[in-house]
Design brief:
The structure holds two protein chains of two kinds. Chain A is mainly alpha-helical. Chain A is 77% helix and 0% strand. Chain B is of the alpha/beta class. Chain B is elongated, with a radius of gyration of 23 Å. An eight-stranded mixed beta sheet of chain B has the order 2-1-3-11-4-8-6-7, sandwiched between helices. In chain B, β1, α2 and β2 form a beta-alpha-beta unit. Classes of the chains: A mainly alpha, B alpha/beta.
Chain lengths: 309, 346
């Protein structure tokens, strides 16, 4: 089969492909295809399971589920709105806090200090941030960050809980820095030096080179890194659960306690003891799935627009 | 060729290991799953029990019930009796056998009050409803004459995860406060009207320890091990009872119905601590299902029999309350009612 499809390839005498080599070539290609298809199937399977399992809840509550404000497993009233708000609020606040840090790290390690022991040390440290398990961030947050936020809240004269949307966002921000930074470092290092040298030759300063050459060249890639961090922030569960306060009400300020979709699922899934309850929790997973998909689609559009310009 | 050979070898090895795993699961090992609360006690009990091996997975009461419904385990363990929905899903009648009882204690962090706080059930519910908001409010003061309570807001802490501990706690509040009963009710997770949620005993304990003015609830064993202060709670007879193992055992020393599915919160016993509950092992009444052998069924019933008798000696050292006399008697009758093919096993 291979010979018929690619006659030129076989005619090339220098290659002298043996039979087993050809077989391996076909096998390898098939493995690649199978792997890719498998991944798509898994995602579709997850989606199908989520839809089927959340059917009882969808039937009972309809679209009201999305803007219902009460979550009461005893009365069987379920509304996802407070958790939707909580998820979006913590993720975007975390993103806003983390972006300046990840961009600064990317520019410093990509352009100012790309080689040497200090650069290696910093790069490894940043990557280590991503390797620390989230439960450790949770406990660190609970015992170190919470008292600090409480001090701050006392100065602002709000109820000094210490835990809430702000604390959860701060810990999320730290956790997602490496995702944007690592990608940014590699991209900035890959900017062709003729471009930069040209700019320098024209008398540009380092800052001007970064602003007018490096940033436009890597813009879409850097944004992809931000998107990656956002995806991580949307789904983060353990650390957020420990620091957000787990209150099923719509947060009134960034100091107020709230809850996110992922942390509600993690908290309540094991003991969901009746069908409607379990189904409502699974529907929460479905909503989270769609939120992630929508945000990714919007991100992709923004990336294409940047690239075209 | 070499690759496909090694692939084949790997597949065979994997299959072989699966087969041996399945074999070991059948071979004299009883499977259980459920409550995390009872896990330390079960681990100790099962390590001492020599007649058969037991593999207990502490995945939570709800998970244990689900596994028993799917017949993937020999027994489940739950901190709350099966509700109607769960009973309907079971294909056959399920027996509840009390294993031990546990108490839920109210812990607090009030600067200047190191211990000895007293609370009535109604006031506790009002605090959790968000109606009593200050430590020096008249409701709290009335129960604590002579204690100087600070002018500090009460920060309510509850469990954020669904748990048997929350079930016991809300069950008590439902019994003692009509407003709680109508507004919130009892469940392993409820719509908390006030306060913050902490994940697990450690989450609640962490928040209480850190937040001045906080009040929370944890299992007695956890509070004792972590040297946390806990409040004396007023029981039905009007006495303030400090939670101890004895007071918890006494709470269950009341008339227990034949199926043992009873809530012992707000106990009638004048010396009993009012926020206590059994944890139940759950088994099918008819043990001949899904091709189970009679040997396996007998081993299971014998294990549970040992648990409620000799096994009880392990309770106190681990801060669990041993079953009361009346509870053991009821448990014996229930175990004797278990059958294999219609015939009694014991």
């Amino acid at each position: 089969m291979f010979c018929i499809r690619n006659p030129k390839f076989v005619e090339n005498k220098r290659l002298k492909l043996s039979n087993s080599q050809l077989k391996w070539e076909i096998l390898f290609k098939r493995i690649l295809i199978a792997m890719s298809i498998l991944l798509v199937l898994i995602i579709l399977g997850v989606l199908a399971t989520l839809i089927i399992e959340s059917m009882p809840s969808i039937k009972a509550l309809g679209f009201g589920y999305l803007w219902g404000k009460v979550w009461d497993p005893v009365q069987n009233i379920y509304g996802a709105y407070p958790f939707l708000i909580g998820t979006l609020l913590t993720s975007f606040i975390a993103l806003i806090i983390s972006v300046p840090f990840s961009y600064a790290i990317a520019i410093y390690l990509g352009e100012y200090n790309p080689k040497g022991w200090l650069s290696d040390l910093l790069k490894n440290t940043v990557e280590l941030i991503a390797a620390v398990p989230s439960i450790i961030y949770g406990f660190w947050g609970l015992f170190v960050l919470v008292p600090m936020v409480r001090e701050l809240e006392m100065k602002f004269h709000v109820l000094p809980y210490g835990i809430g949307i702000l604390t959860a966002s701060l810990i999320l921000a730290i956790m997602i820095i490496p995702y944007g930074a690592s990608l940014g470092i590699s991209l900035i290092r890959m900017v062709p030096s003729p471009l930069k040298e040209g700019a320098y030759a024209l008398g540009a300063t380092r800052f001007e080179v970064i602003r007018s050459v490096i940033m436009p060249y890597t813009r879409s890639g850097l944004f992809a890194g931000v998107l990656l961090s956002l995806g991580r922030a949307l789904g983060e569960t353990m650390a957020v659960t420990m620091l957000i306060g787990n209150t099923s009400t719509i947060p009134s300020s960034i100091f107020a306690p709230g809850n996110t979709m992922a942390s509600v699922i993690a908290n309540e899934f094991t003991e969901a003891d009746h069908t409607e309850y379990l189904s409502a929790l699974i529907e929460l997973g479905l909503v989270l799935f769609f939120v992630t998909v929508v945000i990714n689609l919007i991100g992709k559009r923004i990336i294409t627009r940047f690239t075209n310009n | 060729m070499k690759l496909s050979k090694s692939l084949k070898l790997a597949v065979v090895a994997l299959a072989a290991s699966c087969v041996t795993m399945a074999a070991s699961a059948q071979d004299n090992v009883l499977l259980g799953a459920g409550s995390t609360f009872v896990n330390p006690l079960f681990s100790k009990m099962f390590s001492q029990y020599t007649a058969s091996k037991v593999n207990y997975q502490s995945i939570g009461s709800g998970g244990g019930i689900l596994q028993l419904t799917n017949k993937t385990v020999d027994f489940g363990d739950s901190d709350a009796p099966l509700n109607d929905d769960q009973t309907k899903k079971m294909s056959a009648q399920v027996l509840h056998i009390p294993m031990t009882s546990g108490a839920v204690v109210v812990t607090y962090n009030v600067p200047g009050v190191a211990g000895g706080l007293k609370l009535s059930g109604k006031d506790l519910a009002d605090i959790y409803l968000g109606k009593v908001t200050k430590w020096n409010s008249p409701e709290v003061k009335d129960s604590n004459p002579g204690v100087s309570l600070p002018d500090l807001p009460i920060v309510v802490i509850h469990r954020s995860d669904g748990s048997g501990t929350s079930f016991i706690f809300t069950d008590f509040l439902t019994k003692v406060n009509p407003e709680w009963a109508s507004k919130v009710g009892k469940a392993s997770a409820v719509n908390w009207p006030a306060g913050l949620g902490g994940k697990g005993n450690e989450g609640v304990a962490g928040l209480v320890k850190q937040t001045p003015g906080a009040i929370g609830y944890v299992e007695l064993a956890y509070a004792v091990q972590n040297k946390m202060p806990f409040a004396a709670i007023q029981n039905k007879s009007g006495k303030f009872i400090t939670p101890t193992l004895e007071a918890t055992t006494l709470a269950s020393n009341v008339v227990i119905p034949a199926d043992s599915k009873v809530s012992i919160t707000n106990t009638d016993n004048p010396k009993g601590y009012p926020i206590a509950s059994f944890t139940w092992a759950l088994i099918y009444k008819e043990q001949n299902y899904g091709g189970r052998s009679k040997v396996r069924a007998t081993e299971l019933v014998k294990l549970l029999w040992w648990n409620i008798h000799q096994g009880q000696a392990n309770c106190a050292p681990l801060n669990y309350a041993p079953l009361s006399k009346s509870a053991v008697k009821v448990a014996e009758t229930i175990l004797k009612s278990a059958t294999y093919g219609g015939k009694a096993i014991l």
